[in-house]
Design a protein that fits this description.
By secondary structure, the chain is mainly alpha-helical. It has five helices and no strands.
Length: 125
């Protein structure tokens, strides 16, 4: 069985879309001068070019040393931060021991539930 109605609908939609495209392009408020880049005028004066117009076509110089945007932390500041974070990590590990026992309790509960379910199935009830 062929699906000719689907092909007809697709063809109809394609035809309508193709016919509407030129009308939509005509309604556009953008003209070709806005879409296409403007050609640069050639200056005949012997005045030197400014840095802005000169650097447009140049590649960046990758051999220049990078300057940091902010001061870097010293080794002492780094050690101090690491010590502070380690101390805070040690404080946070206290309640974690309770969660381990909670995990053990849940595992034991799951095991008991599993054993009960198996015994119910095996008994045939």
């Amino acid at each position: 069985m062929k699906n000719s109605t689907g092909i007809r609908q697709f063809s109809l939609i394609s035809l309508i879309t193709a016919s509407l495209c030129p009308m939509l392009a005509a309604c556009s408020s953008m003209n070709m001068e806005d879409a296409a880049p403007r050609s640069q005028t050639v200056s005949t004066s012997s005045a030197p070019q400014t840095q802005q117009t000169q650097g447009v076509r140049d590649y960046p110089n990758l051999n220049v040393a990078i300057q940091p945007a902010a001061d870097q932390i010293s080794a002492d500041e780094r050690k101090q931060l690491i010590d502070e974070l380690s101390a805070k990590r040690g404080v946070a590990s206290g309640p974690r021991a309770a969660s381990v026992s909670e995990a053990d309790r849940l595992r034991r509960l799951a095991r008991e539930s599993q054993e009960q379910t198996l015994s119910t199935i095996e008994s045939g009830q």
